[in-house]
């Protein structure tokens, strides 16, 4: 005849906690997928309201496709300096912001245009040739000469590569 189990038996405790832990794990996964969906749809230029019922696999596939299509570094060339990498990242962020900012309507159009223009001038002043060659943002539109502004901060020297995103 077996002895009755005590209430604090580790095996029984594990049995009772397992469903709760699984529920929490699934909730974390679902929350992360929801955040990923909220991040990826605007980057793909899609309206969130039209894609309210996406399957989890669809969200992951869209994210993988987006990440695969990101512009890779300029191919197999000499290793870029941290400063070059910083400028490249700055321009890539600016290009993405130029695509996303008008569609999200967080700022008034005039403020949004001024912000983008300011960031384009900063990107242009950060390159030695004035930002004209290979700049995905295009040349800045003609405007009155701006007050001198400091160039974007240089990346930290001792911590390897630093990306602005």
From TrEMBL:
The keyword DNA-binding applies. Residues 137-156 have a biased composition (Pro residues). It is found in: Nucleus. GO terms for cellular component: nucleus. Residues 122-165 are annotated as: Disordered. Keywords: DNA-binding, Nucleus, Repressor, Transcription, Transcription regulation. It comes from the Eukaryota. InterPro entries: bHLH_dom (IPR011598), HES_HEY (IPR050370), HLH_DNA-bd_sf (IPR036638), Orange_dom (IPR003650). PROSITE patterns: BHLH, ORANGE. GO terms for biological process: anterior/posterior pattern specification; regulation of neurogenesis; regulation of transcription by RNA polymerase II. This is Hes family bHLH transcription factor 2. The lineage of its organism: Eukaryota, Metazoa, Chordata, Craniata, Vertebrata.
